[in-house]
Amino acid sequence: GLSQYSSDPRTEWDLSAYSTREQVLEAIRNLRYKGGNTFTGLALTHVLEQNLKPDAGARLEAEKLVILLTDGKSQDDANLAAQTLKNLGIEIFAIGVKNADEAELKQVASEPLELTVYNVLDFPLLSSLVGKLTRVLCTRIKEKSNKETADFPVNTGPQLSPTDLKISAVTSKSMNLTWSPPLRPPKKYRVVYYPSKGGTPREVVLDGAVSSLRLSNLTSHTEYLVSVLPVYDTVVGDGLRGVTSTLPLSPPRSLRVSELSHNSIRLSWKAAQGATHYLVLCSAAPDGAED
User: Fold this and answer.
1) Distance (Å, rounded) from C-alpha 128 to C-alpha 115?
2) In the CATH scheme, what is the homologous superfamily, with its name and number, of domain 163-246?
3) Alpha-carbon gap, residue 227 to 190, rounded angstroms
């Protein structure tokens, strides 16, 4: 599977899209480069929520590896998102090109860093990594596959996935989330939310017995993407996703002018709900405007 990212991650193809080496190579030849910003944290969250899912071809019994290829320093918190993946047993390899921040690569990558962090001066030099990286990846998969793992059913369905996400009581600063838990209660839930037009993802971790949350300190008049992910000991179940916009801030209404004198006027208005202060601006009307 492959995703590209800038300020908005984009899945190019899922794990289940192609079944032969030739098909994958043809897809790479047809790939168009996506320029833009470097929101690596948002990209890693996208991979977890969109690409490492059963309906995207991720098999629950298979080892999960993420190879991050970046040519710059992240403009959001890549470490937090990477730590979430690593806590779920997903191994991250970090490859930097040109202006990549090596310290950040080492924060994001899994241990041992001598096997998972690579840095080259330019894109053509990536070809020199292919042989070593292939051997390391295959060896890591074999090592992890040989460890005893819990026996999870391959078909998640209602067994591991919550349903019926409802978003209610939306204000300019907050919203309520509720959902129906899966048949098998998770160890915990990860609730990730961020503005749809780009922004740093925020995350809340809840106990698996909880099935509601109030999000607060949101930005007014903004569309938010919300994801609720059930987390088990060795797997993340299929999550719920929703999109909702917060309300605009209430404006003051019914502005009236009274008590005019040669150097003063009195203003009155109906209060704006929730306002703590008002800023009043005045200036002389331009020539020709109504007095």
Assistant:
1) 15
2) Immunoglobulins (2.60.40.10)
3) 8
Query: Where in the chain are all domains bearing CATH 3.40.50.410?
Result: 2-148
Q: What is the pLDDT along the chain (291 residues), one digit of tens a residue?
A: 999 998 889 999 999 999 999 999 999 999 988 888 889 999 999 998 889 888 888 887 788 899 999 988 998 888 888 988 888 888 999 999 988 899 999 999 998 898 899 999 888 898 999 988 988 888 888 777 665 444 444 444 557 788 889 999 999 999 999 999 988 889 999 898 988 776 777 889 999 999 999 999 999 999 888 889 888 877 777 788 888 899 998 889 999 998 889 889 999 999 988 888 999 988 887 777 766
121: left (phi over 0), alpha (psi -120 to 50) or beta: alpha
Listed residue (109, 112, 119) closest to 143, CA to CA: 112
Its pTM stands at: 0.56
How many other CB atoms are there within 10 angstroms of residue 57's CB atom?
A: 16
The burial of 21, by beta-carbon neighbours within 10 Å (0-12 exposed, 13-18 middle, 19 or more buried), is given as exposed
